[in-house]
Task: structure prediction
Amino acid sequence: MNDMHGSARAWHEQAMGAALDARSLELRRTVVEMLARAGRGHLGSSLSLIEMLRALYDHVLRFDPARPGMPERDRCILSKGHGCLALYALLADKGFFPREELWRFCRKDALLGGHPDATKIPGVEASTGSLGHGLPIGLGMALAVRGRSPEPRVFVVLGDGECNEGSVWEACLSAGNRGVENLTLLVDYNKYQSYDATCVVQDLEPLDEKFRAFKWAVRHVNGHDVQALRQTLSGVPFEPGMPSAVICHTVKGKGIHFAENNLQWHHKSSINEEMAARMREALG
Amino acid sequence: MRKKALDMVHDLARRDARVVFIGSDLGCGTLEALQKELPGQFLMEGINEACAVGMAAGMAMEGRVVYVNTIATFLARRALEQVCVDLCMHKLPVRLIANGGGLVYAPLGSTHLAVEDLALMRALPNMTVVAPCDAPEMERCMAQTLDWPGPMYIRLAKGYDPVVSDPAAGFAIGRAIHCRKGSDVLLAVTGVALQQALGAADLLAAQGVSAGVLHMHTLKPFDAQALLEAAAGARAVVTVEEHTLLGGLGSAAAETLLEAGMARPFKRLGIPDIFPDYYGTQLEIMARLGLDAQGVARAALELLEAPRT
Result:
């Protein structure tokens, strides 16, 4: 991380220092339990997302789990589909599907697989997993629902590694030029992708200036500070006639000390009992 | 054919507010009339096919029927991942209107040729693949696209192609048209290759060979029954397509005949496993590859005369 850009480093340190409250810890326990029972999953990429999704589903999004397709709902697309453990924990918590489904993650004929499937799972707006798809889809949704009353808002959660994909920037260019103000993107900027730190593999800095240059209104936020997230996300659109980008500074593996900023915990496909016990213990 | 397809989009947009057109930096003035009349149903994107297809998916998820138009290969090759994941996995009503299928852009070289589009699209679950043969047939096809379930790939030829279709034969997606009966050889074709097959059937008739012609305008869902019935009445089967020999009409026909246990002398005519970057015109390359009427007739005769093993 020595190559990390100055302000990104400062934000990263803030994210590292963010304390987790009881709800954040409980959601993480759910993620760990799913992972432990399935023996596999993307841990680090899910734990960085928890507070972002929590802020959205607890405080920002309009939705009704009894009517997942209600026309006036806000749309939320997890474009970094590999972070689905966090999404599943929130959707079950909100009552979109029975909690028991969580414990069958990735098993034969399960509802929940390693990437979210919109054709099966109530509350999932788009099937993702292949990166770079969520923002163009969200842009199309935002355009299609524009002008309705009430006007639904579209939130798309991207990974930082995902921002390497060209289709992300195609959609940024189009949404910025079209001034689609009911579209908000959130980047889960945990500073790591699969191989190494993002600043080593494909540096995104200066990320805020990139979005601004594409005619987006941009805010930075500590992605583990629920109050700050809530306040920031409640302020969209940040500028009239512009789409909004929220750069959420997060920590990969947040909350499990040995997984934090540790690439070995990006994805695991053979989690044994000892590892599961260590994860549970780390969460207290 | 291209103009007819786009005029039909305008017509459908007037009739049904769900219809949206998305172009990707098309020629100046394309569908200007639609843009003026129904600006909310017209979007011109830039040169960003992956994004355009994703946007179409998002709009279709919100109840729109979306017609996306650009050069065939940029839909079939560049945006393949979006076509597969965003459109096919979600089974969305997005129609890909693909300009210049096959060898239409011959003068521009292999970057612009779409000679494997049918195979790529055919391999995707939930995708419907159609290749009408001329403008009137395109009109009949487009009229059926409004409520067809799932995504659809519509292959366009050059425009101003000779009209060979018969209005009386009608058009139903998924149902092949038996244009001509014949007992010696069946010529099964798709898209504008119907012209060549009909010409070949005339040449063969002059030599006393009776050739049937089956127009398989829909590659998927494939009308296996029509092929088997037509092939049952012929001694040999030749497939003709402006497409690679791998995975298109010839492959679909071979799979169907073999699995049904219908053994017939069989020949696929199409583009071999090469980049056919010879420039010149579409028709010149087709002739060079034996896809003109003479080439098709010659191949049919050779097949009929070949010693049986």
Observations:
- The two ends of chain B are 44 Å apart (CA to CA).
- Chain B has twelve helices and twelve strands.
- Chain B has a mean pLDDT of 96.
- The longest strand of chain B covers residues 236-244.
